Amino acid sequence: MQNRDEIFATLRSALVELFELDAERVTLDANLYEDLEIDSIDAVDLIDHIKRQTGRKLAAEEFKSVRTVGDVVEAVYRLINTPQAQD
User: Distance between CA 32 and CA 23 in Å, rounded?
Assistant: First the structure.
């Protein structure tokens, strides 16, 4: 899962599986809250799923700014392409 297309494909599969959405509804322009009816509890589940897929945690603060599926793709793309801090 390195490029935006792969991220979108993985995210689409996750949204379909987790929230029983029709794949056709999951487009880059789809609004998570209005078009896909994702609520705050669902968003937490999605953040958790992203963490399991990437091994990195998407900050809840960053997730607050996303509105569309495309926004999530960009957030995940930045997440996986930013070097991790060494502990």
Answer: 13
